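Ticket #4471: structure export looks truncated?
Reporter: QA, pipeline team
Priority: medium

Steps to reproduce: submit the single chain below to the structure queue and open the exported record.
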Amino acid sequence: MTRLKNYAEPYVFVIAAAVLLLFFQAMCDLALPDFMSDIVNQGIANGDSFYIIKTGLEMLGVSILSTVFSVSVGYLASRVAAGISKAIRKDLFEKVETFSNAEFDKFSTSSLITRTTNDITQIQMLTVMLIRIVFYAPIMGIGGVVHALANSRSMSWIIFVAVVVLIGIIATLFSLALPRFRRIQSLIDRLNLVVRENLEGMPVIRAFNTQRFEEKRFDKANRDLTDTMLYVNRLMAGMMPSMMLLMNLVTVLVVWVGAKQVSAFRMDVGEMMAYMQYVMQIIMAFLMMSITFIMVPRASVSAARIADVLESEASVKDAPDALSLDRCRGVIEFKGVCFRYPGASEDVLHDLSFRAEPGQVTAFIGATGCGKSTLLNLIPRFYDATGGEILLDGVDIRRIKLQDLRRNLGYVPQKAVLFSGTIGSNLSYGDKTADEAALYKAASIAQATEIIEENPERLETSIAQGGTNVSGGQKQRLSIARALVKKPQIYIFDDSFSALDFKTDAALRAELKKETGESTALIVAQRISTVLSADRIIVLDQGRIVGTGTHEELMDRCEIYREIALSQLSQEELK
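Actual output as written to the record:
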């Protein structure tokens, strides 16, 4: 929370200027009842038209000044609020960029989206209200009391009664609304999650014909949020009528008591009218404060949620003595590596030791859930190993700067990810300086040339968000081409060939071997055909290495590998 307060520091002078303008605006507003009193008492009572016009023009000038001050404060408040929200949004996004997978497991994607959008909007709205009202209302309230007492001390009990009743109404409403305010943001998270899952999983929903089930699930999340919002809004909606009723009752009370004072010649009619205006200003000041305080609970919840993200320390970060690395040789060595996910009770990887050399293809195979992808995720440090060490050219990767480590890696994830834009912008994602020839060469190696040439726009062909306008195989080939454009020393392919047909797979791997001949290639695959020609195959079972060698060696001495191979290909095909 301390960090959030620092965002207002660059705007201290702007806020001070706004407060000064608010003070002048309040002085103008407090002077208006006195002008009215003078017009009634001296102008109308004496029938002096010139005095009425003169005082009226002065009153008009003060009103115009008040309007100018009000508009100026509104402009400054908007600038401050927009600037603070922009800075928070920027820092929040940059913070999320530093998160490892462990932090993404802690903060769900839907929650991070809500915190970056809705939560920051709540803070922005509150900032505007704080500047425009919280500074203005006390000046008006205190000034109204001083001026009212100066006009008539005998009716001061009316102010006391009005304020006590007003505080009672506000306290009652707040005690009922506060618990619901704390629930609203979590309910928005839930609604966001359901919507994202539905939009991303629409093909599956349609295939299984579960639209009704998803509609009910959305309806429940929507109804929970709606009911909570309605409850709060009904309470808040009751505030304004209550205030108006109070103001009208106070007006009647002032007129009733004031009329007796006027008839007894202890007060002028103008003074009574001025007193009435000051009482209204006092009540309006409390009303404005209460409207602001309505927003405080929800904004405070939003601020706490944002602070949780900003103050979260990334579990994977550069060591204080991290080393720079320009271009590595590409020797990767695992020494007794163990790993368990945050909060898990046991390891998923156990005592892994192997070495991957440049110019070689090292493949990993095993049953689903045996830890293949988890193993590869440790190399770019999406997670850090919980035991043992991973060496790159003999240096523990935890001692290498993250940016330098990842600069030497070409990573193709298990789930191919494309960004909205064009084919060209996606291929050049790893190297913005790559020319068109380099992009076409990478596409040719990845067997993705046809994807480019079948569209008249070529490299300018549009790619939708998430690559939803291309097939799974096309996404994988474009993802592989993107890694090739980068020309790293180490290639990591996490089951990146699963959506390809056997012919395309074979052609791609043949071209890939020529291109990556001097690099280190790490491949996770489910298909035996993908790993047959690898220089070294590592067989995993329940997070342990149970076999290492070439295809022929493993067929002879690794029962698990033999079972996987024979379940996919015949004995003749494996020879």
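Status: closed, not a bug. The export was complete when the record was re-opened. Leaving a note from the reviewer for reference: The two ends are 65 Å apart (CA to CA).
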